[in-house]
C-alpha cells in the first residue's frame, strides 16, 4: 500500500504543477456546494437554452490518441503502466471538461474506457463525474447497464444514487445514465425509480446505429411494428407517468436513438414528445446537424446530440492543426464552437 | 491516503486472524501458478464430469443478509461505512468460495452487488475472481455488458482479458462473462473474439425469466418467430464458427436462458447443441431440477444451472438451522450437497 500512497501523492503533485489540481478538487468538491436537485428534464431545458445548443461532448479517452504533451509527460509516458495510463487519461478528460463545461449543456462519460483499467479506472470515472458536476454541467454516465429485479436496483444505486456511505460520501454519481432495456419494464423501472428519487434521469437504449443492430432491433411483427418501436412503447409508458414529468413537460426517462435513420427518428419524436432523446453519432459517425434537428420538438428542446471523437480529438484534424498548430486545447474549443454554431443554426436556438 | 493504507493493513490483519488470508492471497496469487489456458467449452465438460454436477453457485452478497458472525465483527459491523461493508461482503464471499470451490464446476459473481460500492467494490470483485481462479473453479462474471464497436471491445478487455499492465498484472479476469446482445452481432463478436484469444467464454443473454421480459423477448414476427429466437440465431451463427469450437464440440459462446419456460428450453437445446446454456433460476426463482435437465444434451453436458440465494443464504432456512444451528458454513455446504444430489439424480451424472 505504500506504493499506492506514493503514486497518489505523486499524482497530486503533478496535477498541482500543471494548474489543474485534479486530485485536489476531487478530494474537496462536495455535494453541499451544488444547487439543490431539481427535475432532470427541467434542468436539461434550462441548460440547452442557456448554452443555446443541444451538444453533448462525449469522453471516450484512448491513451494512444492523447495529446503528445500528456503522453510524453515523464509521469505519464507509459501506456503499459496502469497508474501512468490512468493519470494520463484522467488528466486529459479533466482538462477537456474544464474547456467545454461552459459551452455545452451536458457531457457524456463512457464507462468502458475507464473499466479497461479495472477498479483504478472506475475510481477515475467517478472522480471525473464528480468534477464535471462541480463545474455545473449535466453529466451522463454511458454505462448501458441492464438486468432485472434486485440486480437492476443495485446497478441503479451504483450509478445514480449519490452515496451516503462513510468513505464515499464526497462522490457524486451522474445526473443520468444509459440503460439497456432488453428485459422490458422490470429492467427499466428500478433505474427510473432511483432516478426519480435522486432528481436524475435515464436514457434507455432503443435503437443503435451499427449495421447489425437492425437484425434484432428492426425485427418486425405481423403488423410491421419493429422491435425497437415496441421497446420505445415500453419506455414511453414508463416515461409518461406523471411522477416522472417535470414542469416543462419532459420526463426524466428518455431514449438513446442512433442519429443515422431519419424515418425512425421522426416517428419516435412525434410519438413521444415528452422524452429527451440522446442521439449518438453526430460528427465522426456520420449524422449531420439536419439529421439531429429531427429529434427536436417544436419548442427546440428534446434532443441531446452527442459528439465524442470529432470533438475530443479535434487536434488530429488538419483544419484545426493548420489554425492552432500544436495547441490541442484551442483545437477542442474551436471544434465545440463550430459544432455549436452548426447545431444552433440548424435548430434556431 | 494514510487512512486508506491503514484500512488495508487493518483488513489484512483481520483476514489473517480469521485464517482466511484473503488480502494476502490476493496479493500473492498469480496466473503463473494456474494451468495453461485451454478451450473454455472443454474446461466446462471436464469440470462438470469431475464434480458430477452442473451447479453454479452465484455470489449475490447483500450486507444485511450476511451471517451474524461477520455483520457483528467489530471491524465490519457498520453497513453505512463503505470500508467495513466491503470487507464484510468480501470476507463472506471468500469463505463461500472456499466452501464450494471443490464441489461445483463454476461460480458466478454478480458485478452489481460490488459496483454498489463503486470502485472499492470493483476492486473486491476482481480480488474474488482472482481468488476463485486460484481455487481451480471456473468463474463467470455476471456483468451483462453490451455495446457496439470499440466500446464493446473495451468492455471485453476489462472483463475477459487478463491484464498485462504494470500494477494490475496479478489480476485474473473471469473465465467467462454474461453479455447483452441487444445490438446484434456487432455487439457480440468483440466479446467472443476476446474470449477466443484468452481461452475464455461468453454467455449471451437470450431469454430472461422475469414477467415483463416477454413483452420484448417474445415479440414475434409474421411467422411466429420470437425475438429471443432471432437473437439465439445470431448468437448461434457466431457460436458455431470452427475457431470457437473445442475438442468436445462445444463452443466458447453460450447463452443465458431463464429456467422457467420448458418449451423455450427444449427448442433452444435441440437447435443449438454446441452451446453451453447458463440457466439462472434454480432454487429461489422456482426452476426445478427437472426444468434444468431440459438444458442438457444427450452427453449430459451443455447446461450450467445457477443457484444463488438458496445456497449462499442457506443458513436462513429452518431446515438447515434445525440441523446445524448457527454454523452458517455447514448450512451452505449442505445446501450445495443437496442441490448437487438432486441435479445428479435428475441428469444421471
UniProtKB/TrEMBL annotation, chains A, B:
<dbReference type="GO" id="GO:0006207">
    <property type="term" value="P:'de novo' pyrimidine nucleobase biosynthetic process"/>
</dbReference>
<dbReference type="Pfam" id="PF00215">
    <property type="entry name" value="OMPdecase"/>
</dbReference>
<dbReference type="InterPro" id="IPR011995">
    <property type="entry name" value="OMPdecase_type-2"/>
</dbReference>
<dbReference type="InterPro" id="IPR011060">
    <property type="entry name" value="RibuloseP-bd_barrel"/>
</dbReference>
<dbReference type="InterPro" id="IPR001754">
    <property type="entry name" value="OMPdeCOase_dom"/>
</dbReference>
<keyword id="KW-0210">Decarboxylase</keyword>
<dbReference type="InterPro" id="IPR018089">
    <property type="entry name" value="OMPdecase_AS"/>
</dbReference>
<dbReference type="InterPro" id="IPR013785">
    <property type="entry name" value="Aldolase_TIM"/>
</dbReference>
<dbReference type="GO" id="GO:0044205">
    <property type="term" value="P:'de novo' UMP biosynthetic process"/>
</dbReference>
<comment type="similarity">
    <text>Belongs to the OMP decarboxylase family. Type 2 subfamily.</text>
</comment>
<comment type="pathway">
    <text>Pyrimidine metabolism; UMP biosynthesis via de novo pathway; UMP from orotate: step 2/2.</text>
</comment>
<keyword id="KW-0665">Pyrimidine biosynthesis</keyword>
<protein>
    <recommendedName>
        <fullName>Orotidine-5'-phosphate decarboxylase</fullName>
        <ecNumber>4.1.1.23</ecNumber>
    </recommendedName>
</protein>
<keyword id="KW-0456">Lyase</keyword>
<feature type="domain" description="Orotidine 5'-phosphate decarboxylase">
    <location>
        <begin position="54"/>
        <end position="324"/>
    </location>
</feature>
<dbReference type="GO" id="GO:0004590">
    <property type="term" value="F:orotidine-5'-phosphate decarboxylase activity"/>
</dbReference>
Amino acid at each position: 500500500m505504500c506504493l499506492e500512497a506514493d503514486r497518489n501523492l505523486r499524482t497530486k503533485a503533478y496535477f498541482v504543477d500543471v494548474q489543474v489540481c485534479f486530485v485536489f478538487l476531487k478530494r474537496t468538491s462536495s455535494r453541499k456546494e451544488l444547487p439543490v436537485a431539481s427535475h432532470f428534464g427541467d434542468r436539461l431545458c434550462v441548460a440547452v437554452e442557456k448554452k443555446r445548443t443541444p451538444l453533448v461532448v462525449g469522453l471516450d479517452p484512448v491513451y494512444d490518441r492523447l495529446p503528445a504533451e500528456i503522453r510524453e509527460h515523464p509521469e505519464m509516458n507509459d501506456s503499459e503502466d496502469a497508474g501512468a495510463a490512468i493519470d494520463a487519461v484522467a488528466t486529459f478528460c479533466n482538462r477537456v471538461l474544464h474547456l467545454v463545461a461552459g459551452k455545452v449543456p451536458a457531457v457524456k462519460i463512457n464507462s468502458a474506457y475507464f473499466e479497461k483499467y479495472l477498479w483504478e479506472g472506475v475510481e477515475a470515472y467517478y472522480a471525473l463525474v464528480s468534477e464535471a458536476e462541480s463545474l455545473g454541467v449535466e453529466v451522463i454516465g454511458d454505462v448501458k447497464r441492464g438486468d432485472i429485479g434486485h440486480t437492476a436496483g443495485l446497478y441503479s444505486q451504483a450509478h445514480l444514487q449519490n452515496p451516503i456511505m462513510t468513505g464515499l460520501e464526497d462522490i457524486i454519481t451522474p445526473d443520468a445514465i444509459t440503460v439497456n432495456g432488453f428485459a422490458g419494464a422490470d429492467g427499466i423501472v428500478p433505474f427510473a425509480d432511483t432516478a426519480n428519487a435522486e432528481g436524475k434521469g435515464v436514457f434507455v437504449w432503443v435503437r443503435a446505429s451499427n449495421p447489425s443492430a437492425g437484425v434484432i432491433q428492426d425485427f418486425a411483427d405481423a403488423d410491421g411494428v419493429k422491435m425497437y418501436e415496441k421497446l420505445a412503447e415500453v419506455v414511453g409508458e414508463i416515461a409518461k407517468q406523471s411522477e416522472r414529468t417535470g414542469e416543462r413537460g419532459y420526463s426524466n426517462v428518455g431514449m438513446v436513438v442512433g442519429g443515422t435513420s431519419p424515418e425512425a427518428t421522426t416517428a419516435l419524436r412525434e410519438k413521444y414528445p415528452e422524452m429527451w432523446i440522446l442521439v449518438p453519432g453526430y460528427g465522426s459517425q456520420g449524422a449531420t446537424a439536419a439529421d439531429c434537428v429531427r429529434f427536436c420538438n417544436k419548442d427546440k428542446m428534446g434532443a441531446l446530440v452527442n459528439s465524442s471523437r470529432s470533438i475530443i480529438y479535434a487536434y488530429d484534424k488538419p483544419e484545426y492543426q493548420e489554425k492552432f498548430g500544436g495547441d490541442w486545447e484551442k483545437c477542442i474549443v474551436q471544434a465545440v464552437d463550430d459544432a455549436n454554431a452548426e447545431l444552433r443554426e440548424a435548430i434556431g436556438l
